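Chapter summary example: a protein plus adenosine-5'-diphosphate.
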Amino acid sequence: MQAALFDHVFASPEATAGFAAALAPRLRPGDVILLEGQIGGGKTHFARALVQARLAADGARVEDVPSPTFTLVQTYDTGTVEIWHADLYRLSHPDEVAELGLVDAFDDAICLVEWPDRLGDLAPAGALVLSFTLADAPDSRRIEARSDDPAWAGRLAQAAGEARHDV
Ligand SMILES: Nc1ncnc2c1ncn2[C@@H]1O[C@H](COP(=O)(O)OP(=O)(O)O)[C@@H](O)[C@H]1O
Ligand SMILES: [Mg+2]
């Protein structure tokens, strides 16, 4: 059963990035974040900020973080953990998920997955689902979180508490 864990409106791209950056150091190998929501919702923006923050936190060189729209997957090695950023929009069959190596990565990398509906029943238990929607103001985005692992709630609350909302 997936429980609702979190519901916040972030008033600017910087606010969303701040939340992603605050969550980044709290992630461990085997954590999977599924990023849902319409095009332009901010999924890539969130993932990019998270990857950059975790590379920096682990003392790795901070690289460009291109969108995996065409490559399907971009991987990063922080020296401590691999981060996989996937965009499955163009995936035609769930079998390709295993071919990409994503199923194995779910076990020991930090995985950020856009368009996770393409996973079918390969979506791992315990994943954090973040659902992005446009909010009232043009630069506002609502992020709702849910998971069947209630342990995410504490980490989300800590990250949201630490991130600035007035940017
Ligand atoms: N509060 C916000 N949070 C995240 N992105 C925002 C916000 N306000 C405006 N944006 C903009 O919305 C766009 C989101 O694009 P992107 O992250 O590629 O979306 P998606 O990957 O969901 O299709 C970016 O241009 C970003 O700057
Ligand atoms: Mg995207």
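Key point: The first strand starts at residue 3 and ends at 10.
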